[in-house]
Amino acid sequence: MFYVHLYLIFCKEWWHWQYLYRIIDCMKNEQCDLSTCFLCRHCIAEWKEVIAIKKITLRFKKGEKLFAEGEKVKGIYLLYTGAVKVHKQWVEGKELIIRFTRPGDILGHRGWAAGDVYPVSATALEDSKACFVPNSFLESTLKADQAFTHTLMQFYAAELQKAELRMRNLALMEVKERVADALLELQGCYGTVKNKYIRVPVTRQDIAAYAGTTYETVFKFLKTLVHAKIIQVSGKSICINKPEKLQELVKNAK
């Protein structure tokens, strides 16, 4: 560890030491199962041996960024465990959450396809693991596996459709409808635990950032939903008692 600390002293960029510590930590633990992430699910079987050598499994604590908007693109991240929000600066002092992600999802692909920097940020909502695939290896994979390339193109097309629908909803839905849609989206993405609460607790501010509204508006509307017994809350955790009521709100807006 002496040489690690010596490296940190002379390191000029923060992400050097950040990644070095993560790699050392993950070397002590199990690696991914080579079957969960998007790349492993869709590549040819023979390529998995190469993936095991080339990718790096990294750990991220709750609230820690996997990458930040404006950072140079180094590769893509394949979420293995945990939950991550993808977001970007919207107006001064506020952010807009683009999507919530779960194990198996791709992160950083917007930057890889768009140019030299990430156009969005990704932050862990809980302690998470992600496999990092550098640009050079991803390009090699696309050249070696045409079926995977086709699948990735389909993924980008689906992402574009979802993005267009999100833009439409933000523009045309009323605030209450957008918040209802956000709650249903969270439950659909993360599922529920035994007591029926959404598995990943999300702050009111994050719900507001996804719905394109304010914390105060979300707080008031959730209070109304609790009074109507449509949902119940316990701290940051939310249980949807009557999903059909939320679905009615969303359906009427479409």
Secondary structure category: alpha+beta
The H-level CATH homologous superfamily of the largest domain, spelled out, is Jelly Rolls
| SSE series | HHHHEEEEEEHEEHHHHHEEH
Instruction: Using the coordinates shown, work out and report the CATH topology of the largest domain.
Output: Jelly Rolls
Spatial strand order of the main sheet = 1-8-3-6
Number of helices: 11
CATH architecture of the largest domain: Sandwich
The first-level CATH class of the largest domain is given as Mainly Beta
Number of domains: 3
User: What value does the average pLDDT take?
Assistant: 86
Could you give a short description of this structure?
By secondary structure, the protein is α+β, with helices and mostly antiparallel strands.
Task: Explain what the structure shows.
With 254 residues, the protein is α+β, with helices and mostly antiparallel strands. The protein has three domains: 1-30, no CATH class; 33-166, Jelly Rolls (Sandwich), CATH 2.60.120; 173-253, Winged helix-like DNA-binding domain superfamily/Winged helix DNA-binding domain (Arc Repressor Mutant, subunit A), CATH 1.10.10.10. Helix content is 50%, strand content 19%. It is built from eleven helices and ten strands. The chain has helices at 2-10, 14-27, 38-42, 48-54, 109-114, 135-144, 146-172, 175-190, 204-211, 215-227, 243-253; strands at residues 56-60, 65-67, 75-81, 84-89, 95-101, 106-107, 121-124, 128-134, 231-234, 237-240. The strands form three sheets. A four-stranded antiparallel β-sheet has the order 1-8-3-6. The protein has a four-stranded antiparallel β-sheet with strand order 2-7-4-5. A two-stranded antiparallel ribbon has the order 9-10. Strand 9 (231-234) and strand 10 (237-240) form a beta hairpin. Helix 8 packs across helix 11 and helix 9 packs across helix 10. The longest helix has 27 residues, at 146-172. Residues 1-17 and 23-30 have low confidence and may be disordered.
